[in-house]
Design a protein that fits this description.
Blueprint lengths: L2 E5 L3 E6 L6 E8 L6 E5 L5 E4 L5 E3 L5 E4 L2 E3 L3 H9 L5 E5 L12 H10 L1 E7 L2 E4 L3 E5 L2 E6 L4 E9 L5 E8 L2 H7 L6 E3 L3 H6 L12 E3 L15 H13 L7 E8 L3 H13 L4 E4 L23
Parallel strand pairs: 4-9, 11-18, 14-18, 16-17
Antiparallel strand pairs: 1-10, 2-3, 3-9, 4-5, 6-7, 7-8, 11-19, 12-13, 13-18, 14-15
Helix pairs in contact: 1-2, 1-5
Length: 304
């Protein structure tokens, strides 16, 4: 895919915020080449916030954007679906401060994007190809990116729970594989932490319909898990969405060990500072672009 993409027509959906519990409507609409992914708070006179690292504000239990005090929260699942679908340019119109959680996965957003369709644009697409490793370490948590010819993620998690334990999965970006094995993976949490989180003003909209809730020995969800390693798959879903904040699709192998939203964004920030670690190419396996300044800003990951 050598050219930028937007969606072919506007589409909309609605739901509630996981943390706020408030109803919210979202409308995706086409955007010109070079726009990137831009959120519009239609309840605040169309105030815009671009999905880029400089606007990331909070990264504890979700990845949130803020500009001039205006917040857009829980962006990662929608951004993940846009990245996997190779949508470079789109306006995301939203009438509250949190993207709806839907069923806790990226599947509803993926279906919405498919309903909209893709429209190829005239401007060329460029990728940031990793040419030397970059790593961020915080105690036992770490995340790295290594040179590779495609966009690949290896994620490792470790939880002291009989249904999780140590899990590891590697995924190379492609839309069919993402749709089958990554997008359906839901966010998860522990029942023992529910009251503490709610007292902190979080997960007010959380339920068994939009999250996996773990007891000490199992899950409360009557339908069970969608995959034995659904937890690890969801972390891959999250990092795909968070890496959109780099502003261009990446070609490299991301290796994460017990990371999370904060570590994902820390890697993005490190890459933005260490410009010698990557070069722009006009297409995977192609020669470098002439200069970084000549390349369009793109905010999605390639689907190979």
């Amino acid at each position: 895919m050598t050219h930028q993409n937007t969606i072919a027509r506007a589409v909309s959906t609605e739901g509630i915020g996981l943390h706020t519990g408030v109803p919210v409507h979202v409308r995706l609409s086409p955007a010109p080449s070079g726009t990137g992914i831009v959120f519009k708070r239609v309840d605040l006179d169309g105030f815009t916030i671009k999905a880029k690292a400089k606007n990331v504000a909070r990264v504890s239990y979700a990845t949130s954007l803020m500009r001039k005090g205006v917040l857009i929260s829980t962006t990662e699942h929608l951004l993940s679906a846009l990245a996997a679908s190779a949508v470079d340019n789109v306006f995301v119109e939203i009438d509250n401060l949190e993207v709806p959680i839907m069923d806790g996965s990226a599947i509803p957003f993926l279906k919405l994007i498919r309903e909209a369709g893709l429209k190829q644009q005239r401007a060329p697409r460029s990728w940031a190809k990793i040419i030397k490793p970059v790593e961020v370490v915080d105690g036992q948590k770490r995340i790295s990116i290594f040179p590779a010819e495609d966009f690949k993620i290896t994620y490792r998690i470790s939880f002291n729970h009989p249904l999780i334990g140590d899990q590891e999965r590697t995924f190379t970006m492609n839309l069919p594989g993402y749709e089958r094995g990554i997008a359906p993976a839901r966010t998860f949490g522990f029942f023992d932490e529910v009251e503490m989180l709610r007292q902190s003003g979080l997960i007010r909209g959380g339920s068994l319909e939009n999250a996996i809730v773990l007891t000490k020995t199992g899950v409360m969800n009557p339908e069970g898990l969608r995959f034995p390693d659904e937890f690890c798959r969801h972390k891959i879903l999250d990092v795909i969405g968070d890496l959109v904040m780099f502003g261009r699709p990446l070609l490299g192998h991301v290796v994460a060990d017990r990371a999370g939203h904060a570590m994902h964004i820390a890697l993005v920030s490190r890459l933005l500072r260490e410009k010698s670690a990557w070069k722009l190419v006009r297409a995977p396996h192609a020669s470098p672009a002439k200069s970084r300044s000549e390349a369009p800003a793109i905010a999605a990951s390639p689907a190979s």
